[in-house]
Write a structure and sequence with these properties.
2 copies of one chain form a homodimer. By secondary structure, chain A is an alpha+beta fold. Chain A folds into 2 domains: 136 residues, 60s Ribosomal Protein L30, Chain: A (2-Layer Sandwich), CATH 3.30.1330; 159 residues, PurM-like C-terminal domain (Phosphoribosyl-aminoimidazole Synthetase, Chain A, domain 2, Alpha-Beta Complex). Chain A is built from 8 helices and 14 strands. In chain A, helix 3 links the parallel strand 5 and strand 6. In chain A, helix 1 packs across helix 3. The radius of gyration of chain A is 22 Å and the shape is globular. Chains A and B meet through helix 1, strand 1, strand 2, helix 2 and strand 5 of A and helix 1, strand 1, strand 2, helix 2 and strand 5 of B. Strand 2 of chain A pairs antiparallel with strand 1 of chain B, so a sheet runs across the interface.
């Protein structure tokens, strides 16, 4: 049964955890907005209306959305707030677009410590300022204890397309080189290490990072960028499979050229994981004409790991360090739940 | 501990509930997208890339976001899918903007029946087609059993502003008339009736409805619309309080002019609820110059319920049917959790 309204009940001092009433649309929710959410977002505070008005210039816009359900909320190298901002900024970057505006949807579980909410929002504000994205509108819902897991965050980002031609699997050509901007697997292993209380030799921090800057360098250098894809859920392997299938072309990559940090490699061996399937949050693959491969690697601080082939459409082949070729399939089954 | 990858494992026939692997970014997730999500969204299927490209015309855009956590997922007069589409379409309408593009973020709980997902997505597709909004991009996450409640949906909508002047509390003027487009409280009572297994004399279905059409009529008739606000969480009372505070003006409304269906009134009495605090999903308040009040009521099928006053800034006064004036406060505490 619902609680009845008690109009004369004075507001208690601010509770130190989220209550159901914080999602009611009434005075508690306004107090939460005024005292916690808007101050924490600082200059990135959205206006208090049903939506926000933005003034785009001429030309196409890119739109992307992601919900973030990562567990735990804080991990070495980041937290759900920073992830939620960078993640959607990065998805737009993969469209050749720079994020300008962002919405934030919070689903809070009753009992979430207010201090946790403040920390996460502080991270969001810092990440938004860093990447030049403006949080223009938001929404807060509260679900009962046991119907969430602390907090879930949705961000939807909008920004102008800066790439001069369409970027996507359809633009990939046989002969294209594939460049990645760094070593693989750190995000997944970092999250897993805190979640499962594992200790590895050497520390592993997430590779979480905003990706517009390296993409902008590729575009400003005039490179003919055919496709970009961040290597998040499902890792390198799933990304390459998606693109091979979308482009109806084959992909061949060389294991010896794909950088994996020694600690990550060791952790993967112990855990029975393949680093090519582990999620990254600051890594992407760029598909460019072969003659631009070296330039792309230099501009992104990365390496050339393989190429696109006309034969074996839809298949990703890995040339192992032993010189054998084996298919690098799409992830089958569950590897690491709730990594983003 | 995470499951290891089994590359040779054939995919089982489609499971009839959501599994954690459906959120992994791998083959199961692709299967879910290809076989369930994209077909269910029909012509509203988003493209398979990190984001979508849209081509707005010149002029400002409005952006809005909402997460929908309503319990139960299906209720008399609608379901979470229809609510998630109309809800964000309506928030844009309140900005004087017509929704053109929408993102959909799904957070699914492990064990959700696939059939439930299909039904909800089917509702979303129908509601999107009806309102002329295109679902351009999406995201699906899966959380463990007991970390969600079936499903949560975020929608973020973008669309061109059609209003010739800014709409919002800052545009409200003393003397403005307040018009609402119908009777209050049906959504909250309909949801509550199924949630708590209550039976009332007479059926109550939610008032859930898209609101762009009546707003467009106001704009096309050339009315000087100062503010629009949908009467969702916190009901009429919270909406009016927000506007009175935002406008730094007083509001006076007359109880006898505010329509409440007899069954809703009876249910509220039994439950100790005030219909002015109960959520609606197809009702809004429009603030227009007094001389346009009648026209606004006719165009929206509604009624004039009160006016804005220069005195008593920030206060909403209700003139009761007994002729006394009492403050209509913002909802304090929790009335009906998870009504949207």
């Amino acid at each position: 049964m619902p609680a009845t309204i008690n109009l004369s009940c004075p507001l208690p001092t601010e509770p130190d955890t989220i209550q159901l009433a914080h999602g009611s649309g009434g005075r508690w929710m306004h107090q939460l907005l005024e005292r916690v959410i808007l101050p924490a977002l600082g200059r990135n505070s959205p206006a208090r209306h049903d939506g926000a008005i933005v003034e785009p210039g001429a030309g196409p816009l890119a739109v992307t959305t992601d919900s973030y359900v990562i567990r735990p909320l804080f991990f070495p190298g980041g937290d759900i707030g920073r992830l939620a901002v960078y993640g959607s900024v990065n998805d737009l970057a993969m469209c050749g677009a720079r994020a300008s505006w962002m919405s934030v949807g919070l689903i809070l579980e009753e009992g979430l410590p207010m201090e946790t909410l403040r920390r996460v929002l502080g991270s969001m504000a810092a990440a938004a300022a860093e990447t030049g994205v403006e949080i223009v509108t938001g929404d807060t819902k509260v679900v009962e204890r046991g119907k969430g897991d602390g907090m879930y965050v949705n961000t939807t980002a909008v920004g102008a397309v800066r790439a001069p031609r369409p970027i996507g699997p359809a633009a990939v050509r046989a002969g294209d080189a594939i460049v990645i901007n760094g070593d693989l697997g750190r995000h997944g292993i970092a999250v897993l290490s805190v979640r499962e209380g594992l200790e590895f030799e050497g520390e592993v921090a997430s590779d979480l990072a905003p990706l517009w800057a390296p993409v902008e360098r590729l575009l400003q250098a005039g490179l003919e960028v055919h496709c970009l894809r961040d290597l998040t859920r499902g890792g390198l392997s799933s990304a390459l499979n998606e693109i091979a299938q979308g482009a109806k072309l084959g992909i061949r990559v060389r294991e010896r050229d794909i950088p994996v940090n020694e600690t990550v490699r060791g952790a993967c061996e112990i855990l029975g994981l393949d680093p090519f399937y582990v999620a990254n949050e600051g890594r992407f693959a760029a598909f460019v004409p072969a003659e631009q491969a070296r330039a792309a690697a230099e501009l992104t601080g990365g390496v050339v790991i393989g190429e696109v082939t006309a034969e074996r459409a839809g298949i990703v082949l890995l040339e192992t360090t032993l010189g054998v070729q084996r298919p690098l399939d799409m992830l089958s089954g569950e590897q690491l739940p709730r990594i983003c």
